[in-house]
Amino acid sequence: MSYLFPNYGRWPIRITKGEGNYLWDEAGNRYLDLVSGIAVTSLGNVPHRVKVKVQEQLNTLWHCSNLFEIPIQEKLAEKLVSLTCGDRAFFCNSGAEANEAAIKLARRYAQKIKKQDRYEVITFEQSFHGRTLATLTATGQAKVKDGFAPLPDGFMTVPYNDAAALRAAITDKTCAVMLELVQGEGGVNPASPAFVEQVQALCAEHDLLLIVDEVQTGIGRTGKWFAYQHYNIEPDIITMAKGLGSGFPIGAIVGKEKLAEAFGPGTHGTTFGGNPLACSSGLATLETMEEEGYLARVAEMGAYFMAKLEQLSAVRPEIVGVRGKGLMLGVELAFEVADVIAKMRERGILLLQAGPNVLRLLPPFTVETEEIDRAIAALDDVLNTVTHTV
Ligand SMILES: *Cc1c(COP(=O)(O)O)cnc(C)c1O
Q1: Any residues with Cβ below 6 Å from ligand 1, and which?
Q2: How do residues 1-16 score in pLDDT, each as one tens digit?
Q3: What is the pTM of this model?
């Protein structure tokens, strides 16, 4: 009997330790971690440089309310602005909170700055934006909404990679479009360049804000700081969280200067957001990635992993397709993947799923080619043992 709510379908291993690319369970078994806490521990488990900075901060100041100016928060904001097309940052504690802030900012900008009666946010099928009431409403998956009615008004979902459907859905109530550039939970689905450029053009034509949800794709995961940087676009708001703090909970939005007035004093806030411990983890994560050249490494290891998956796919009819960007990879099988994931786990390799038929690989940026080879060999072997009909 557990004292926890049973809201997670948990795997039956009890994790107690992490170091680099590995996790250990209570019994002492070691696992190659290709999950990274769902794209969180991008520098591996307990990364040394981040640990040292957070330890220094632990000795100095843990928490300080946003009633005061917080130098380390300003420093992290300056860093994020320098890495993006945005001008201002707001800090919170999770991805859902970052998206919630973006939705609130878009509505308030329309209503208070532009003096328009607009509030609707358009999102896409198979998207995932979080578990708060507003962000689950924004999410394009019915299962996330089941049993939580009534849901807030002002959201509309249209097919992904379909600019004509977006164009047809825009009304005089629309204030923003919110987009994942590679859908994570929804199946590792990249947006096509033509679609993304059309979304930006439609936003410009109809005077809508373009929000990119980079909670999973951000902070180097796709081989650039942010996935939008693979495309020829400039979003108005970028949301982020997972990889920002190497495991310390932190979320943020970065937005254009024109939005600043819409979030004046008293409009929005959170007690813990941008707390010094969280900011020290964020700053140390970004500095480590920058100084140690991790973006190039993600591109290189991502290409290596992708090439190996494509080789495997060529000889394996069970694999329907491989896709992704950088170290965010999806392998679609011709059948449900749960059994494959369990068997990989028995071989000491941890993987995720994204929808019933897609294996999701989110390795740490520190992953080695030898570890990738080992994962590929294990997958090849496991595919021999699962019973299925192709
Ligand atoms: C995980 C995720 C979220 C939600 O983040 P939480 O920190 O779990 O609230 C939102 N958007 C995307 C794209 C995500 O992958």
Answers
A1: 94-96, 99, 128-130, 180, 184-185, 213, 215-216, 241-242
A2: 899 999 999 999 999 9
A3: 0.98
